[in-house]
Predict the structure.
Amino acid sequence: METEKGKLPPPPGLITSLVRGFDSVASNIMVILPPVLLDLFLWLGPHLRLKSFFQPLINNLPSMASALPSSLPDVPTIQQLWTNFANRFNLFIILRTFPVGATSLLSFENPGQSPLGAPPNLDAGSFFGIIGWALLLILVGWLVGAIYYYWVSGITLQPETRSLWKSVKQTTFLSIIWLGILFVFGLPAFLLVSVITFFSPILGQIMFFAGALLLVWLAMPVFFSAHGIFILQLDAFRSILGSLRMVRFTLPNTGLFLLVFVLINTGLNFLWNTPELNSWWMLVGIGGHAFVSSALLAASFIYYRDINAWLTAVLAQLQQQTTSAKAN
């Protein structure tokens, strides 16, 4: 990166990264297959329910509530809420893994209908059955997500030497790290919100919203924690540290990129969810979401590479200027 003496190079352009990301996916449209296939499975495929596990607990709520303060909400109402959850929750949605995973439009929609009618239902069974299913689905989600990220980064940046196996292995390590952090900090928070919701649904919703905002704020510095694995073939820990370092030194520019990223993705999701779930027009929404989310992912790879090159050049130039100043 050549710059005029004494002047710092400008940061990479936000619009340029977005345009190049959309161009890359438009030229390699097959890369949208993982998110398309995942949404089709969640929409048209069977649903894995938790009814056998939750139903005995729901049936015992009246006897449990009799030992608690009388100020509790109406027990039949609570029973109905948990019955609806047990009848509608689809464990297959955890195929959409984080931070690396195939993007999905319907993972939070929990569709209960499709043009083919009501989906067939499977049951995860007991507590240990649920744990077994969850572990299997998480592993599959990690594998599919790693291949998806590897594919998108490959058609976008075309790196010379990479190893798919190393990318999958380091992605697994990265996901285990974040899963451990989520378990240590997220599980207690979830239990707290659940207990609060049990006593006061409105206060529980407020707590959930505040927690979601806090999670978004904490996630920004590690948004690019997986990018170093697929672009620079870093290990999981070095990739996380690289993301923290990059965001720290480029926060205004990177913050704007992430804001635009979220606004485009979230805003268009309202459009993609316009068709009814029992209409084949939902295919348009699934395809549109897969294309846009893949293009945004490609743009993030381009931005990560360019902003790191810019940061390296800036730090080198500042070091050179400092050395020259001391010499004089």
User: Anything to note?
Assistant: The CA atoms of residues 261 and 296 lie 7 Å apart. The longest helix spans residues 282-327. The chain is about 70% helix and 0% strand.
